Amino acid sequence: MTALSSGQALRMAQHALFGSDTAQIDAELLLSAALGATRAGLYAWPERQLTPAERGRFEALLERRILGEPVAYLLEEREFWTLRLRVTPAVLIPRPETELLVETALALAAPKGAEALRVADLGTGSGAIALSLASERPHWQVLATDQSAAALQVASDNAVRLGIRNVGFRQGSWCEALPEGQLDLILSNPPYIAPGDEHLGQGDLRFEPASALVAAEQGLADLQAICNAAPRHLAPGGWMLLEHGFEQGPAVRQLLAEAGFSGVRTLADLNELPRVTLGCLEIQGD
Fold first, then answer.
1. Of 42, 163, 193, 209, whose CA is between 20 and 30 Å from 273?
2. What is the pTM of this model?
3. For the chain, which residues score pLDDT lower than 50?
4. Number of structural domains, the chain?
């Protein structure tokens, strides 16, 4: 086996991944993981020779990436909000647009100051939403639920590793595991892609759990189930926040309105696409 420097390894990987919009950063991340080095270090010492073990790890990671496997699964981590989360193929890969849920929840609750709000994240997956909120508001009581035991294990492991203690975990489908009439805020990024959507056969989606992506009724089935059940679990004046597809805003607004929510509106993400719809549970008698 001929010697291979880190500089040569980077060039080799970028050539192998040619055509990908993320070829350079993917090459840097995979080589950094294989060497246990920083990305800056790769360029500071491009002449560094890879050991046979390092080269073997790097080539194995590169081969998997060439076949399309997401970098987040290869590295078993993804950054979200201010956190570095462990992710596995049992959970959806957290995406930047979902940070809008966290941002909106924090802004909604700001007038309540230091109140210990009761919050639930439905279909928590890696715990991205629940753990981000809990890390920002240590006095909140956050409940993270998921139907998947494997996903809950990933989320609870993340909580332990990050030292976040104000999150509880329960198994159940959507609102099944929630207390009744007690919550101030419910959030969810449920499956909202329609079965047969062409995007399911592209990119990272090919490797992510279908149960976290696909919903019946043109992607609206789980959104409707959550809207129908949530009022029983929210305190009067409580809020519901839902992520959805960019074309589903009108349908989700209708679902929330029919379920008794007022002040219903849709917010756009950083790409200026309609992404999160929210509403406040009407207080009876007002």
1. 209
2. 0.93
3. 286
4. 2
